[in-house]
Model the fold of this input.
Amino acid sequence: MVQPGGTIGILGGGQLGRMLAMAAAQLGYSCHIYSPDRESVAAETSANFTCAPWTDNAALTNFAAACDVVTYEFENVPVDPLSAIEPSLAPHPRALETAQDRLKEKRFVEGLGGMPAAYAAIDTQPELIAVVDRMGAPGILKTRRDGYDGKGQWRIRTARDAEAIRLPQAPTIYEGFVEFAAEFSVILVRGRDGEVRFWDSAENVHEGGILASSTLPASETISAMLSEARELAAKVANALGYVGVLTLEFFATHEGPVFNEMAPRVHNSGHWTIEGAATSQFENHIRAICGLPLGDTATIAAEIAMTNIIGEDADTAHEVLSGNGTHLHLYGKRHAREGRKMGHITRIAQG
Ligand code: AMP
Done:
């Protein structure tokens, strides 16, 4: 167990690290951020900051030596250099390794009985043309690695698109387009003793591949397939020997929950838990990795809506505070850019 006053290392310097550090502070811990980017909104809420490349073994080793436990908030941290600090890490880097490659991730989840969208690995244009001919269009071509928030994705509407597209210089995967009724995520926390707890699932709406909003309660369509989706998420967590918060994203379809992707970390679709659940995803992640008892994940409001503030200056965001039950979170990012997550708003209504 990490004692009060202990230090939690966080690999990654973004808003998820910032909110983890705020939850850690409440429990008497201080945080040490590791990020190659000098500008870090997580470092602003943390006691220590190492700014160094992911591949700097000496910096990584010194960082881990200064921490009681090390976790990550960014899923594209290169895995190989982490072997030097593996004993400090929670969750185990095998979760990162699996989630970083869409092909590996889908095969792993299929092996546990999950159902992803139809897919095929693509390395060359003739392969893509043949696969689109076999599987049909529409579909989505995605880079296997390093994609996030809709980046590294291309819609293939017709066979002609497959001929015209210039493939990226990286392995890709072609996915059949899923006609879904809704999207949702299962977010769980798994403790060091293997105990698993779930939060309620929000209904997620994406715009341009980026999460726009998460709303609770979710529709009946989603509730009906929740136990199946949770069963799969628990199998994934157990198979990985996972410690901390884990997220699986699903499409709700006529055939049941179709697995989209997993994130071995706290997740944007769980931000509502800060005000809407007895214990937030951030606090429970800290509790889990520090070996503390897990907190109650129950929803404590009748209706909850989280909306992201994306790409726009957060300067006027304070205006929303005049509404009752409205909670504003700004991440302190200086420069707004298209698609950049600047903050979020959670609206809570009691029944
Ligand atoms: P991803 O980054 O793979 O989670 O994709 C971002 C969003 O794009 C998803 O949440 C969906 O809204 C949409 N999307 C991704 N893959 C598919 C698919 N195979 N079929 C339909 N929509 C998809």
Residues 117, 140, 150, 175, 177-178, 183, 206, 209, 249, 260-261 surround adenosine monophosphate (CB under 6 Å).
